[in-house]
Amino acid sequence: RVRNLERCEVALSTTVAQSRLKNRSHRPDIESCNDPPHNRLVDEVATINDTILLLEQKITEAEAARLDLVANKQRLENDVRVKSNSLAIDQQKCMTLRMSFPFNVRCSVTSKRVERRRFRLDLSED
Question: Measured between alpha carbons, how far is 99 from 94 in angstroms, rounded to an integer?
Fold first, then answer.
């Protein structure tokens, strides 16, 4: 809706400048001359046309970027679904097997994480 409104405004300004230029070109002999107002109108029409081309190019680039972002979003959402499924499988099927395996720490340095794991095993054995 906003794009259509902007396009209408640009088309309106182009139409106004072109109609002024056309009216000037239909003037009688002596009034039809290349004076500063005529040159400004020609410059204005050229500037508006250049601006329209630039804006259309920007719209095309923005649309391509939007499509790229949508594709990336879909890819990331799919990755999240796959990883969530993998975690669910790990929690439901693999964790019960891991908890039943004996666990011995054979290193001299223990961390809180290892001690927690050992504590969980001790609880599950009781």
Answer: 9
Per-residue pLDDT of the chain (126 residues; tens, 9 = 90+): 556 656 666 666 677 777 777 777 766 666 667 778 778 878 888 888 888 888 889 989 999 999 999 999 999 999 999 999 999 988 888 877 777 776 665 655 555 555 555 544 444 444
Q: State the burial class of residue 30 (Cβ atoms within 10 Å of its Cβ: 0-12, 13-18, 19+).
A: exposed
Q: How far is CA 117 from CA 47, 60, 88, 112, 124, in A?
A: 72, 56, 20, 9, 11
Distances (CA, A) of 89 to 69, 76, 96, 101: 30, 20, 11, 18
The string of DSSP letters for 41-65 reads: HHHHHHHHHHHHHHHHHHHHHHHHH
Q: Closest Cα to residue 16, out of 28, 8, 5? A: 8
Radius of gyration of the chain (CA): 36
